[in-house]
Write a structure and sequence with these properties.
The chain is mostly helical. 63% of the residues lie in helices and 0% in strands. It is built from 10 helices and no strands. The chain has helices at residues 13-30, 35-42, 50-64, 67-78, 90-95, 101-113, 128-140, 149-159, 164-173, 180-201. The protein is globular. The model is unreliable at 2-7 (pLDDT under 50).
Length: 202
């Protein structure tokens, strides 16, 4: 997604950590990870929480995964000869078809929030990587001022909450998932935390 200008307003440390995780998920799900990204993921450390254990497992696999293996796995999961094992789009998960009403609703919200599609992006905007990138941008203030919590909640509830946990569960258990299995675990745990935090903050 294109940036609409940075802001000087401070963002709370816990929100920076949320944005970091959204950005990491976006990077892992947008393209096959290169060695530099795998090395960054390998330096992560977890804890005894559900999310922390998933992060630890992802870190260990990143250390053991080659760039070529990650590319083969990414292609099998998301691209394939005709299509990949998974279709990571909100429209598909919510309606069974691509380019449906969820995409139209997202585009309307993007216009309202001044989020513009980057010129080198050709996939529908409701893919999971773009939505994670948008959430990170709202938190950090990439599209103007950092978004208020209510705006973040509304965007999450409309565009990630209804389907992202289901997608990440599918990714976790996909036949072709090895490195991407803990990516699914991290995403599933993180979406559950976000959903509960927004519910409690409502």
């Amino acid at each position: 997604m294109a940036q609409a200008g940075q802001t000087a307003l401070a963002v709370a440390e816990e929100d920076i950590l949320r944005a970091d995780l959204y950005d990491m998920m976006a990077a892992l799900l947008a393209h096959p990870p290169n060695r530099a990204l795998l090395d960054r993921v390998a330096r992560l450390s977890g804890d005894e929480t559900t999310l922390g254990k998933a992060v630890g497992a992802l870190s260990r696999l990143a250390r053991a995964t080659t760039e070529k293996a990650a590319e083969r796995e990414f292609n099998a999961l998301f691209i394939g000869l005709a299509r990949g094992e998974l279709l990571p789009y909100a429209s598909y998960y919510l309606t069974g078809f691509l380019n449906e009403k969820p995409l139209a609703l997202l585009r309307s919200d993007m216009r309202r929030l001044q989020i513009t599609r980057a010129p080198n992006v050709y996939e529908p905007e409701d893919n999971i990587a773009s939505l994670c990138e948008m959430m990170a941008g709202l938190i950090r203030g990439r599209f103007g001022q950092p978004a208020e919590l209510a705006t973040q909640r509304d965007f999450f509830s409309a565009h990630l909450g209804p389907w992202a946990e289901h997608f990440f569960t599918d990714l976790e258990g996909a036949e072709g998932s090895v490195f991407y299995a803990p990516v699914g675990s991290v995403g599933r745990a993180f979406m559950a935390i976000e959903r509960e935090a927004f519910r409690m903050g409502a």
